Amino acid sequence: MIEINNVTAGYEDSPGRAALAGLSAVFPDRKLTVIIGPNGSGKSTLLRTIMRFLPAAAGTIRHNGVDLEEMNEREIARKTAYLPQNRPIPQIRVREMVLHGRFPYLSFPRQYSRHDREIVLQALKDADASELEKQYMHELSGGQRQKVYIAMALAQQTDNILMDEPTTYLDIRHQYETMRLLKRIAKEGRCTVAVLHDLGMAFGFADQMIVLERGTIRLQGTPEEVYSAAIIPEVFGVDLVKTGDESGKTFYYTRELQHE
Ligand code: ADP
Ligand code: MG
After folding, report:
1. What are the CA-CA distances from residue 217 to residues 41, 42, 62, 114 (Å)?
2. Ligand 1 neighbourhood includes 53 CB (under 6 angstroms)
3. pTM, to two decimals
4. Kind and range of the H or E element at 195?
C-alpha cells in the first residue's frame, strides 16, 4: 500500500510553479489504481515523487506504512517497483534484463544466486514471457518488451508496482493483454498503479481512478463514480460514453464533443 498526504512537488527550473499541489490519496493492495489526466497534469511527476526521484517539497509519502524519508534506496526498491515512461532498450538478453529486478537483494559479493535465477524464471512465466527468455531485448516487439519489463518488476518481488503508460506503443490486442496482466497482478495481492491515456481502457479495467488536472486531484473514485460525476468533458475536452453488452458487461468509449 502507498499513501500520500498533502504532497507538493515541483521542478527547480520552474520554482514559482508546483507541478503537484497538495495531493492526498491511498493506493490500496489488491487494487488496480489508474491515474488519468491530460498532458502535463502531473501524472509522471506523481510517480517520480512517490519513488523519491523528485523530492517532495511538502507532505508525507508512505510505502507499506513506512515514511519515504526513513528508507534508503534499497529499501524503497524492495517495497516498490517502478516502470518509467521512457526507457532505453539495452542490448542484452531477456533473462539478464529480468535479473536486474533482483538487484535490490544482492549482497556482497554481488553475484546472482540460483535462487535469484529461479525467481526470474517464475517471473517470466507469470508475465507470460517464458518463451522470450533467450532473446535479445532490442529484437522484441513493443508488446513482448512490455511483458519483459513487467516480469522484471515481478522479479523484484515488491508489494507495490507503479507503471507509467505501460500500454503506449502497443497494438490494441497487446494493450488488452497488458491490462489483463496488470489486473491479475492486482488480484493476486499487489498494490498496482498505472498511468493510462486511453480512457476506454482506464474505465474498463480500473478498480479505482485518480483524475489529475493541473497538478491537483480533481476527483478519485471507482470508474462508475468518476463517470457519474460527468467531469470528463471538462477535463479532457471529449465525451465519455457508457454502454453495455447482452451479458451485462459495461464498456466505456470516448467520442468528440458534439459541435453545433
Ligand atoms: P504528465 O505525465 O501528466 O504528462 P508531467 O508530470 O510530466 O505530466 O509534467 C507535469 C508538469 O511538470 C508539466 O507542466 C511539465 O512541463 C513539468 N515538468 C515535467 N518534467 C519536468 C522537468 N524535468 N523539468 C521541469 N518541468 C517539468
Ligand atoms: Mg507522463
Report:
1. 9, 10, 18, 45
2. no
3. 0.94
4. strand 191-195
